[in-house]
Write a structure and sequence with these properties.
- By secondary structure, the protein is an all-beta fold.
- The chain is 0% helix and 62% strand.
- The chain contains no helices and eleven strands.
- The strands form two sheets. Strands 2, 4, 5, 6, 9, 10 and 11 form a seven-stranded mixed beta sheet that branches. Strands 1-3-8-7 form a four-stranded antiparallel beta sheet, with no helix packed on it.
- 31% of the residues are buried.
Length: 120
């Protein structure tokens, strides 16, 4: 069994910062790409940031220069540092990862989501 657990969401004023964490646990052999998505009410889920196992990153245009994705492979954890937050960043943030478990099975796993609310 593999689980992804997010933490770090909350309420913050515009211009503030938050740091999200997502820890993977279970029978993990290796983790490939790790990603952060978000979904605002009435909108489709969108990719916010992604990071490969070797450190390559990509970001949504709307967060470039404000958000930074990083990961600690020893802890099977991915982070999202969010600075200069705007009200339009309000959403439920989800992490997901491509995880290889024992037996060489690679699956995509999702976390349960964490709410980020930015007040104006």
């Amino acid at each position: 069994q593999v689980q992804l657990v997010e933490s770090g969401g909350g309420l913050v004023q515009a211009g503030g910062s938050l740091r999200l964490s997502c820890a993977a646990s279970g029978s993990i052999f290796s983790i490939n790409s790790m990603r952060w998505y978000r979904q605002a009410p009435g909108k489709q889920r969108e990719l916010v940031a992604a990071m490969t196992s070797v450190g390559s990153t990509n970001y949504a245009d709307s967060v470039k220069g404000r958000f930074t994705i990083s990961r600690d492979n020893a802890k099977n954890t991915v982070y999202l540092q969010m600075n200069s937050l705007k009200p339009e960043d309000t959403a439920v943030y989800y992490c997901d990862a491509d995880i290889e478990t024992m037996g060489n099975v690679i699956r995509r796993y999702w976390g349960q989501g964490t709410q980020v609310t930015v007040s104006s």
